[in-house]
Amino acid sequence: MALHYVNPAVAQNTEDKTLTTRVIIVRHGQSSYNIEGRIQGRCDNSVLTEKGRADASKVGEALKSLSFDAIYCSPLQRAKSTAEIIASCLEASPEVRDVDKLREIDLPLWEEMLRDEVKEKFAADYRCWKERPDKFHMLVPEPEGNREHYPVLALYEQAKAFWQEVLPRHQGKTIMVVAHNGINRCLLGTAVGIPPADYHSLQQSNCGISVLNFAGDLGEAVQLESMNLTSHMGEIFPKPRAGHRGCRLLLVRHGETQWNREKRFQGWNDIPLNETGRQQSQNAGEFLKDLQIDFAVTRPHVTPQGNSRNYSPASPASAAATV
């Protein structure tokens, strides 16, 4: 997927800016606490499982031909180990640098508890965490009294501070970030303008890969090129999170047309696919062929219809419509 976000304050100056700084964000591999259903937070007792280590190697294999100016990771061992395994697979790797600004969300009252225990013991707080993460807070006991702590808001500030520190160092380069579910969501959110209230709208799977392209510093133009890719681990798409309800919507852009190649605005003009576009749509169909698709919808233009004809959903009952 690709999404452009432009800060309105600088919108008039970004049209001609090139998105030259690429950041590849990876969540750590499966950990022992992931398997046990424990909340990890900032505790450092959770380690990679064998699957977690194997999946980290698959990330390294997928990225091995890329040249990285820097690799940053969380100092927590589940993320640092993932980063070191990935780095060992690269054809040329810089030193892995662990930085505190990539630590996971701080949930001191819940750390190391089973998620089901938290739901039972802190039922109202857990509902707030899931439904209104920007309002969720904890009263953390300290020697001088209770401290009011807003975990998601604090993590958003931490993510902003990371971008402000790191992006100016690597203009026009490619860097990798290996961290955690929570901080990765906040890195993506602060980059493209997703607010803390929508913290849970982003999914970061173990060893999932996301890619951001920046035109400059935080607040300037940025492109979300892809998010939470898992195909390098043999999963066409990430598994839905536990408790997911509702449909899964796949958005597919049409293949290349001659006007795309000539960099002409197409708008409502009905331009057919060129040979590359037809091959791209066939590749997309091959990628999706084993996925059950219950319903497909497309525009009446010849270009998207040309794409949709190349898809072969696993379900013979799939229907297609034009709108």
Short description:
The chain is α/β, with parallel strands linked by helices and 323 residues long. Helix content is 31%, strand content 17%. The chain contains 10 helices and 11 strands.
Chain-wise SSE layout:
Layout: E1 3-5, E2 21-27, H1 32-36, H2 50-63, E3 70-73, H3 77-89, E4 96-98, H4 115-121, H5 123-131, E5 138-142, E6 145-149, H6 151-166, E7 174-179, H7 181-192, E8 209-214, E9 222-229, H8 258-261, H9 275-288, E10 295-298, H10 302-308, E11 319-322
Parallel strand pairs: 2-7, 3-4, 3-7, 10-11
Antiparallel strand pairs: 1-9, 2-8, 5-6, 8-9
Helix pairs in contact: 2-3, 4-5, 6-7
What features would you describe in this structure?
Strands 1-9-8-2-7-3-4 form a seven-stranded mixed beta sheet. It has two domains: 3-230, Rossmann fold (3-Layer(aba) Sandwich), CATH 3.40.50; 258-322, no CATH class. By secondary structure, the chain is an alpha/beta fold. The chain contains ten helices and eleven strands. Helices cover 31% and strands 17% of the residues.
What would the keywords be for this entry?
323 residues; seven-stranded mixed sheet; two-stranded antiparallel ribbon; globular; disordered N terminus
Tell me about the biggest sheet?
Answer: 7 strands, mixed
Structural class, please? Answer: alpha/beta
Mean pLDDT: 89
Domains (count)? 2
Helix content: 25-40%
Tell me the radius of gyration.
21 Å
CATH class of the largest domain: Alpha Beta
Give the low-pLDDT segments: 1-16
What is the CATH superfamily label of the largest domain? Phosphoglycerate mutase-like
Number of helices: 10
N-to-C order of helices and strands? EEHHEHEHHEEHEHEEHHEHE
CATH domain topology of the largest domain: Rossmann fold
What is the CATH architecture descriptor of the largest domain?
Answer: 3-Layer(aba) Sandwich
How many angstroms separate the termini? 22 Å
Identify the overall geometry: globular
Give the strand line-up of the largest sheet.
1-9-8-2-7-3-4
**Oligomeric nature of the chains:** single chain
Instruction: Write down how many β-strands occur, each being a DSSP E stretch of 2 or more residues.
Output: 11
Strand content: 15-25%
